[in-house]
Amino acid sequence: MSYTRLLYHIVFRTKYGNSTIPEQHEKELYAYMMGIINNKKSKLYRIGGMENHIHLLVDIHPTIAVSDFMKELKEYSSKWLKTNPNFPGFNGWAVSFAAFTYNLNDKQMIIDYIKNQKEHHKTINFEDEYRKFLIDNGIEIDDRYFLKD
Predict the structure, then answer these.
(1) CB neighbourhood size of 108 (10 A)
(2) Concatenated DSSP letters of 46-90
(3) DSSP 3-state of 14
(4) Which pLDDT band holds residue 1 (cuts at 50, 70, 90)?
(5) In angstroms, what CA-CA distances link 60 with 9, 68, 133?
(6) pLDDT (tens digit per residue) in 71-102
(7) Phi and psi at residue 20, to the nearest 5°
(8) Displacement of CA 92 from its chain's centroid (Å)
(9) Do the strands 7-13 and 98-102 form a parallel or antiparallel pair, or are they unpaired?
């Protein structure tokens, strides 16, 4: 038996960063995504975001690559969103995402960060937030590809 605790903070956005997740219906989307995550034998600790992006704190099952996990989460949720009348403007997810690993000791800090997205984005836009995450995690940004769909 293998023992793992693989905490990922994952950030992804709507195609072109369009505001297509209405706040009054976001919990419906989050519940749907939670079902997908549970079906992947993974554990969702927190989900939240804004009209144009989502944050997850998730423990992905060790047999699933992060890229496969995100491909399927985006694919299944995109199909659902495009048929749901509560999300009329949704036209897909951006191709890219960012995923960062964290220690179990950081779990509550990330949960609190995700919980406070609405407040946080009163002072910082998504592009600046995303750029800061990348820089803080030592990822070199190539502006030719940054937030291009």
Answers:
(1) 12
(2) EEEE-SSEEEEEEE--TTS-HHHHHHHHHHHHHHHHHH-TT-TT-
(3) strand
(4) low
(5) 11, 11, 20
(6) 999 999 999 999 999 999 999 999 999 999 99
(7) -120, 15
(8) 14
(9) antiparallel
CB hemisphere CA count around 74 (13 angstroms): 22
Flag whether pLDDT at 8 surpasses 90: yes
Place of tokens 């940054």: 146
Please report where in the chains the tokens 């609405």 appear, as a residue.
118
Number of neighbours of residue 13 by Cβ within 10 angstroms: 23
Residues 47-67 have a mean pLDDT of 97
Q: Does residue 103 sit in helix, strand or coil?
A: coil
Q: What is the mean pLDDT of the chain?
A: 95
Sign of CA dihedral 129, 10, 116, 22: positive
Identify which of 133, 136, 38 has the alpha carbon closest to the alpha carbon of residue 147: 133
Q: How far apart are CA 59 and CA 42, in angstroms?
A: 6
pLDDT in tens, 105-146: 999 999 999 999 999 899 999 999 999 989 999 999 989 889
Can you list the domains of the chain with their CATH numbers? 7-136 (3.30.70.1290)
Q: For residue 5, give the H/E element and its range.
A: none
